[in-house]
Design goal:
heterotrimer; A mainly alpha (about 290); B mainly alpha (about 300); C alpha/beta (about 425); B: about 300 residues; MetI-like fold; 13 helices; about 75% helix; C: about 425 residues; alpha/beta; D-Maltodextrin-Binding Protein, domain 2; 2 domains; four-stranded mixed β-sheet; 20 helices; 15 strands
């Protein structure tokens, strides 16, 4: 494994390298631009935004927009800021990510190490759940949640996100475990190890990289969801709904600096996850899904 | 007695356990995916308005759908958008991955920069790009302030060009992710093969064209699947960036479906457009899945 | 277990009712008033309710003038978990009432005498089959023009009262080197302008075309003229208008970059917030040729059927609180609209607000109060959006002339019905 992670053996000349660096930097600028625009405008007073240059650095630096977005901006009737909604999101995201990842791991384990007739069909059918547009399922989902008594509650939201997440997590883990030598599983079986023992002792310890991919993917998708949150969140609306309320207010003055600060605040958890776990991400992709 | 039945029971349990573990996921998929698709298909043949009802109207919704100019705009737009989006994302992703793979100093800094847009929600992406592309406050104004007075960049305000601004923002959001997939693919290639080819006198260009890119086939396929389903599902970005405008120039199937189902109270027509979207997705995914899964048997 | 819990709770609730230590349940309110001023205004309602012992559970969903909220509502109702009270506009109320989802408020309405104080045109939306199903909070009128006073003075002309005068003023402003018309290119904004244009061609024509959807009026010569005027107005708008928020267009008028804006009364809030004084810094007039008539839209709260007695009582409390004259005054002063009751004193309102209240009363007596097409008070959503499509296309120059646009409108409306 270690040998493979090295960079390519291709060698390049000095001019080419300069060109490569230049291009990589230009792309970095391209990717950073919107973040810069949001960042710089979130520390300006409102007059500077509506009247001035969006790229310019603030003449007057202020942290008020951030304070306002976090704790005093009007989200609904109460001027609570985004703070209380943050907790709602966490309460929903953490269980949903954990459950869908665990279920995906078990599914992947079954589909690769305990194969049965028609298992590829089962997998193929499950995979299609990744591709269904969410707007389509809104109304029937409401019916089902209503019947289950889960409408307008956090468990309901968790269920929805798990259901539409297991397609992806199963895909990731299946492709990852496919590369794991089945002989080891068979040997353990002969030694008398059971289904869960094998999973727990043999597969789980090596699942780190793909678990990172699965968690990142699920975390960002669920954290950023708006449609389900607004429809099924009830009174425990997630962060995105609150941010939307902040940004989309229908009439009245639009405080763009507060909007930008709020947008960055809402994106912070996912940004942190990407930056902290980013390198494991490529490693995980490498180990699993892409080879599939 | 117990000694002889216990292993029997245990083996049988062991036989059934894997299927039992998989069963809930499978059942849930059948209900929440295929059940809901069937429900939508049924709705598309009914005269549902604000809430679902089951008055059968035959093919009427489909006839109405294809007669609507906005639906045709949506079809043309998705064709333009999907093609450009997939091609550009793949090209940019591959280019960045190949370049990043050249023992680049600071890769650890660059990679998260390329990757982070994927972490942001549409509200964030849309707001930022809307600002940036707006001629009155964004790029055009800034470049003019810098002294290039005649600079003009008004795509987002131009019915013929606005669709391309959505391509730009969408490429910005996902090309980093595609880069990560290609990078993973590149890192997975055995260096010995490359070294051998170099000894045979292959140039860098030949090396990539003849050896590396063919070896990346799985990454290409994964990228294609992820990008094409994102393209067909693209809803959030359009709403946040152009709201379907100017006029209805940037209408897409997903926005069309949403507006007919939820804001225009013509749920029947909305459902029929959903069925067509699903059929398109199936037409792309089924052959792919078939080929992929069959190969591994 | 769950069910048992529920029945127990219900039984307790009934017990509580009968022993008249009734503490009403909370109201769960779905609305899209989330911007500072209006949210604060709703806060007044919340506090009034709290004083009477009714709690408020907030469920705000903003976006697209209530579109996101209506989607969420549909999901909630389908799930059998309807909120107790929902902010709603025009035809949505009628559609939900037709589905049988709304609670009957007639007893409260009769006791409080709502039918005497609420304009008839408004009652058409608050009642269904003779039953009150919603409590109106306010009346917005949409046929306003907001003019920068300095820019108007620079033209040397008076505030326009006819189409020709309007064109003269706009031309002069163009000569003076400003953008004559501040406008945001979003379908509903163009439709708002179009409301005014059609109304200026006559109240009867407005009603025939946009309310009664008479095909002859929709595709006729007068409609062609209306579209020609709309296309004419396009020539006074800067090139950067598409997708602009309405409040940025207001800002253009406020800082003198643009001469005027055709927008509903909520625009006033922007001017006031910028420290501008009506009559001194800006002028508010009815769309030229529409003085005496008003196109309106009204925010109402509809109550959804609840089986729980405590919640029903809370609904009644909320409906009463909404119709309380003091609340109507306090809310509308903040919101920029005028009270839905015609008997509210106008002391607290500024000049534009007083004019709005007088105009509303006048139009109500004269029978020239019409529902606004642009804001879903003239025709159901499917027709409204089909109309939007044609108006926006016409404004963006997709038809050769007004006649072609009128023909397209008649066709689109027929297809959407």
């Amino acid at each position: 494994m270690a040998a493979v992670t090295q960079d390519t053996a291709v060698s390049t000349g000095r001019v080419t390298r300069a060109f490569i660096y230049l291009l990589l930097l230009l792309f970095a600028l391209f990717y950073l631009l919107p973040l810069y625009v949001m960042g710089v405008n979130s520390v300006k007073p409102l007059e500077e935004i509506t009247g001035g240059n969006m790229m310019a650095l603030p003449q007057v630096w202020t942290l008020d927009p951030w304070r306002s977005a976090w704790s005093t901006a009007q989200i609904g009737v109460e001027p609570t800021g985004l703070k209380p909604y943050f907790l709602n999101s966490i309460l929903m995201v953490v269980p949903a990510v954990a459950i869908s990842t665990i279920v995906g791991a078990l599914n992947g384990y079954v589909l690769t190490k305990w194969r049965f007739r028609g298992d590829t069909w089962v997998f193929g059918l499950m995979l299609f759940s990744c591709f269904i547009p969410f707007q389509i399922v809104l109304i029937p989902m409401a019916v089902v949640l209503g019947k289950l008594g889960l409408a307008g509650s956090v468990p309901g939201l968790i269920l929805v996100h798990v259901v539409y997440g297991i397609g992806f997590t199963t895909l990731y883990f299946r492709n990852y475990y496919a590369a794991f030598p089945t002989e080891l599983v068979r040997a353990a079986q002969i030694d008398g190890a059971g289904f869960f023992q094998i999973f727990w002792r043999i597969l789980l310890p090596v699942s780190g990289p793909i678990a990172v991919v699965s968690v990142i993917w699920q975390f960002t998708n669920i954290w950023n969801d708006f449609l389900f949150g607004a429809s099924f969140g009830g009174t425990s609306q997630p962060m995105t709904v609150a941010l939307n309320n902040l940004v989309q207010s229908s009439t009245g003055v639009k405080e763009y600096n507060v909007h930008f600060a709020g947008a960055i605040l809402a994106a912070l958890p996912t940004l942190v996850v990407y930056i902290v776990a980013g390198r494991y991400f490529v490693r995980g992709l490498m180990a699993g899904s892409v080879k599939g | 007695m117990t000694a002889s039945t216990a292993p029997d029971f245990r083996t049988r349990l062991q036989d059934w356990l894997p299927k039992l573990v998989l069963a809930p996921s499978f059942a849930v998929t059948i209900l929440f995916v295929y059940g809901f698709i069937a429900f939508t298909a049924v709705l598309s043949f009914t005269g549902s308005k604000m809430l679902p009802n089951f008055k059968w109207v035959g093919w009427e919704n489909y006839e109405k759908l294809w007669a609507l100019p906005a639906w045709n705009t949506a079809i043309v737009n998705i064709a333009i958008f999907a093609t450009l989006y997939i091609v550009i994302c793949t090209a940019v992703g591959l280019l960045l991955a190949v370049f990043l793979d050249q023992k680049i100093r600071g890769e650890g800094v660059l990679r998260p920069i390329y990757l982070y847009p994927m972490a942001l929600s549409f509200i964030v992406t849309g707001t930022a790009w809307k600002w940036f592309l707006d001629p009155g406050i964004g790029l055009e104004k800034v470049v003019r302030l810098w002294g290039w007075e005649s600079f003009s960049f008004t795509w987002i305000k131009d019915g013929d060009m606005a669709i391309y601004t959505i391509v730009i923002a969408a490429v910005w959001q996902t090309s980093g992710f595609v880069m990560a997939m290609f990078l993973a693919g590149l890192r997975g290639i055995d260096n010995e093969i490359l070294k051998a080819a170099q000894i045979d006198g292959a140039s860098n260009w030949q090396l990539y064209r003849r050896i590396v890119i063919p070896l990346l086939r799985p990454a290409f396929l994964s990228a294609f699947v992820i990008l094409s389903h994102l393209a067909i599902k693209s809803y959030d970005l359009v709403v946040a960036l152009t709201g379907g405008g100017p006029g209805r120039a940037t209408e897409m199937p997903a926005t069309f479906m949403y507006s007919y189902t939820f804001t225009r109270n013509q749920m029947g027509i909305g459902a029929s457009s959903a069925v067509i979207m699903l059929m398109t997705i199936a037409a792309i995914m089924v052959p792919y899945l078939y080929a992929e899964l069959k190969e591994k048997k | 277990m769950r069910r048992m819990m529920k029945t127990t709770v219900k039984a307790l609730a009934v017990l509580a009712m009968t022993t008249s230590i009734a503490k009403a349940a909370d109201v769960e309110v779905l609305h899209w008033w989330t911007s500072g001023g209006e949210a604060a205004a709703v806060g007044v309602l919340k506090d009034n309710l709290a004083a009477g012992g009714t709690g408020w559970v907030d469920m705000p969903v903003a976006g697209g003038g209530g579109e996101a909220a209506m989607t969420a509502l549909r999901a909630r109702v389908t799930a059998g978990d309807a909120p107790t009270a929902v902010q709603m506009l025009g035809f949505d109320i009628q559609d939900w009432a037709a589905e049988g989802a709304l609670a009957d408020l007639t007893a409260t309405a009769t006791a409080e005498g709502w039918d005497k104080v609420v304009p008839a045109a408004l009652q058409a939306f608050s009642t269904h089959d003779g039953k009150w199903v919603a409590a109106p909070v306010n009346v917005h009128s949409t046929n306003w023009v907001w003019i920068n006073k300095a820019a108007l003075d620079a033209t040397g002309l008076a505030a326009p009262t006819t189409w020709d005068e309007l064109v003269a003023v706009l031309d002069k402003m163009k000569e003076n080197g400003i953008t004559p018309l501040g406008h945001g290119g979003q379908p509903w904004q163009e439709a708002t302008v179009f409301d005014g244009i059609v109304l200026s061609l006559g109240g009867d024509f407005y009603k025939a075309a946009l309310v009664d959807l008479d095909p002859a009026a929709l595709g006729g010569e007068q409609m062609a003229e209306a579209f020609n005027r709309l296309i004419k107005l396009r020539s006074y708008v800067d090139d950067n208008f598409s997708g602009r928020d309405w409040n940025l267009a207001s800002a253009m008028v406020i800082n003198g970059e643009a001469g005027m804006q055709m927008m509903g009364d909520w625009a006033k809030g922007e001017f006031l917030k910028a420290g501008k004084v009506p009559g001194t810094d800006f002028v508010c007039i009815r769309f030229p040729g529409t003085q005496g008539s008003v196109t309106f839209n009204s925010d109402q709260f509809a109550m959804f059927n609840q089986s729980d007695a405590g919640k029903q009582e809370a609904q009644v409390n909320m409906a009463k609180a909404i119709m309380d004259p003091a609340f109507q005054s306090a809310f509308n002063v903040v919101k920029g609209s005028v009270p839905a009751r015609t008997d509210v004193p106008n002391d607290a309102f500024d000049d534009c607000g007083k004019k709005g209240m007088a105009d509303l009363a006048e139009a109500n007596t004269a029978g020239t109060l019409y529902g606004s097409m642009a804001h879903g008070h003239a025709a159901p959503a499917s027709v409204k959006n089909a109309t939007y499509d044609v108006i926006t296309a016409a404004f963006n120059g997709e038809y050769a002339d007004g006649a072609a646009a009128a023909a397209a409108l008649a066709e689109a409306v027929a297809a959407a019905q």
